[in-house]
Amino acid sequence: MKNATLFTGYQSDFLNAERTVGLPILNADQKADLAPVEGNGNGIVNYINYSLMLSSSHKFPFFTATNIDGIDFKKVPRKDNWRIDSRVKNYQWGKELYGAARSDFDRGHMTKREDVQWGDNEAIASAAADSTFFYSNAVPQHKDLNQVVWRSLEDYILHAETKEKQLRVCVFTGPVLSERNPYFVTKINSDSVRIPILFWKVVVFENRDGNLCRVGFVMGQESLLIENQIIDQSTFELESISAEDELFMDFKDSETYQVNISLIEQLSGLTMPKATDVYTDDRNIKLVLKEVDISNDNLESDSLEYQIGYSIDNIVLY
Q: Looking at residue 196, what DSSP letter applies?
């Protein structure tokens, strides 16, 4: 790949040279499903300031891992340049999915474009931003999730916390890849594509006392996909679910949640880097923080700005 040598990827010693923050650890099934990477035997796909690992069966990332530098952030113009990464050519969905009939969803960045826009100069920041436009970094997200609630969380992490307080943070993001995810209504080259309904994000940072901390968030798009007839409900099996799966099925549309990291690990199958959990929730409400509920109905209401603002105010980072 052209300029592949520039893709140094996620740095585990980014926060502190003496205390590393490694990548999430795949479980046994995920390791067996890990997509091979041309020229790299460990399955890690490196870009500028971020890395990812892909599922060969789902053709979406298990996770992306991003270093964000609030001190060296650069503002550069957005230049959409979506393309296939030839190193993992057969393990990502491209135009055939996002341009298909009934594909009423966005190419949702897992690593946000602006998150990697940092470096010694604008040229590096611009190249980093451009490197987020590989299809390997994309997962279908309904526009009302991607452009409203998901974006509000991403902007909060980058602008209100990382830039404003000149922090360095590590962010891990991904979809919940499950055999229980519903199928897209349109087959792609005769293949049925499962569309993720849940997305998670984990932020690892050093607090004011120098302690390594982490917080986690989850969002869902199930109802949005159903209401827009993007998924085939007949393929969404609800019977014979276990107690663990009930948590999975209880997510509602376009809701933003701050949750225990253990819950994200349970849903994703990944083991997250160890750190102190700043936020804990002992309430028996499964995953629902009802006060930040956002649905199709109130996306169109005057209360949206209040709801998003309220959810951000209640996020616990310190």
A: P
Strand-pair partners of 287: none
Is 251 a residue whose pLDDT tops 70?
no
Mean model confidence pLDDT for the chain: 82
Distance CA 293, CA 316 (A): 17
Residue 78: other Cβ atoms inside 10 A: 12
Element (H, E) at 204: strand 198-206
Helix H or strand E segment including 296: helix 296-299
Amino acid at site 70: G
pLDDT at 1: 45
Counting runs of H as helices and runs of E as strands, what totals does the chain give?
10, 12
Q: 267-277 pLDDT, tens per residue?
A: 899 999 999 99
Single-letter amino acid, residue 164: E
Tallying the residues shown for the chain, one arrives at 318
What's the rounded Cα separation, in Å, for the pair 287 and 283? 9
Pairing of strands 212-220, 276-277: parallel
In single-letter form, the type of residue at position 251 comes to F
Instruction: For residue 186, count other CB atoms closer than 10 A to its CB.
Output: 14
The predicted-structure confidence for 115-137, as pLDDT tens digits, reads as follows 999 999 999 999 999 999 999 99
Question: Cα–Cα distance between 312 and 310 in angstroms, integer?
Answer: 5
Between CA 242 and CA 114 the distance in angstroms is 39
The one-character DSSP state at 313 is: H
C-alpha to C-alpha distance for 300 and 106, rounded to whole angstroms: 19
Task: Give the residue from 238, 215, 226 showing the smallest Cα distance to 144.
Answer: 226
pLDDT band at 282 (very low <50, low <70, confident <90, very high): low
CA 222/CA 150 separation, integer angstroms: 14
Percentage, residues of the chain above pLDDT 90? 56
Q: Give the ranges where 91-204 is alpha helix by DSSP (H).
A: 95-98, 122-130, 143-144, 150-155
Rounded to two decimals, the pTM is 0.86
